Task: structure prediction
Amino acid sequence: MDIQRKTVLVLGGWGLVGRAVCRQMAVHKPRKIIVTSLLEREAREAVAELRKEFPRERKSLFVPWWGNIFLRHELKDRPREVLLSNKATRQMLIDDLLGEFASDLLERQTIFKLLNDHNPEIVVDCINSATAIAYQDLFQASRDVRRQLQRRTADDALVEATERLLVTQYVPQLIRHVQIMYRSMHYAGTRLYVKIGTSGTGGMGLNIPYTHSEERPSSVLLSKSAVAGAHTMLLFLMGRTPDSPITKEIKPTAAIAWKKIGYGEIRKRGKAVTLVDCPPTNAVRLEKNLELNLKEPVWRETGDTLKSVFIDTGENGTFSRAEFEAIATPGQMEYVTPEEIAESVVFEIKGGNTGHDIINALDNATLNPTYRAGFLFDGALKELRTLEEKHGEKSVAFEMLGPPRLSKLLYEAHILQSVFGSVNAAQRATPNSMSTQCRALIERDATLRSRIISIGIPILMPDGKTILRGNEIKIPTFRGESTIPIRKTSIDVWAHDGWVDLRIGNMEAWKVRFERIIREADDVPAGDTSSRYMRTRAYWNNFESIEPGKLVGWIFSEEEHGKRMKA
Result:
């Protein structure tokens, strides 16, 4: 299809991929591009930046639009939690989800109004629909219903919990969304629909190390993949339906990066991460129970916020250098650039065959890690290191990527790096000496200590009975109960999953890990300079340094069997 003089609707236009698609579309002289986002601020920001990038184009080329396309139009600008907390709006959500699919239901929907107001010939959907639906967490909603049933009283708590469960079910939401999209595009005369999909795991398998709870992988993460797969099959059926738009899906199977590299305040869910500190004198003794929410906090706010070198990956979050290195290192999630995704979208729209249309080739159409991204990888790491040196700051972990085990391992490796400087030096130390020296570093370095516990990672002291902690603990995962009994094996499990562990036993584990890596490198035949081996002594800088991101990438790939199968 010729894009010139066509109206293009880009859903999720504020995002990393959406912005790249808008840029690619603008080159082909469409009549207008409607740039949508959830929030007004985001949509206007995206349009303002696009107008700066295309100063010679008329201002009317880019049109901002905002709101939640999964809701009816009158609710599109209200937060979902606010809607769930109100009985009247909960009833509206239930009616729209489970009511008869009639014309009145269709016409009150946001997506119907948006499409029929603008009548786009081309729709490019860059919204991560699987995340938007699956991450409402059906499992926690189900636990809430069960808890209310067990505690049933005369109030309406059970009614609200049950209604929340009804509107959190994934499949009904997905089916209704596809029904509305199909009917709305049919009425609007849309001729082509391109979906930017997801595998739910960045192209990795069930052994994916990055997750959001103690389960590996978490039920919520698998739900995201399940919804993504169900969405693809529904689009497959849409593409086989007479009178429907030509339907395509581009499904990246790698992390998408990046938007910006810089130094500044680290924010989570729009709020700055507040730094807190827990001096060793306030250490909590681990006895009968572990209180996840203390009545009397043992930490204090430092009056500062977390500032560090970061790489902004758009909707996926803000990562530290080490987190970025771990996720993008060979054998892990790796990454693809938004520009490559956008180029594929435009090529498919113009009638080309990229080989990445998942509707036509479900197995081989995924957009895998790319040579371009791999080539740029070293440049991004160099820029991050340069900023680290400029600001005197080590960018280790922000606990946005998940799981907490990743942050725990990155900080343990960072502590060993700070104490010993190299793998060789760490290997010469005894586990007892390693534990003692790491404890000394934590005790004297309040800044390091504060950064670790402020992102929800407690520090388990060498005695195994006291922890340094902040106002949030990522592990054990909160499941509705604030008090958790401490059993014999609890501390070991929690320390493994998400606590910086200064015990001698963990130092022994690090020595074994280093020995295995050294042995693997030494097994490379002397003089073999072929492409057969990657992790040579040169790869590890002859073990004269400790690189947390690269090291944890190896741990996830080899020790925890989390390596991706297809590159």
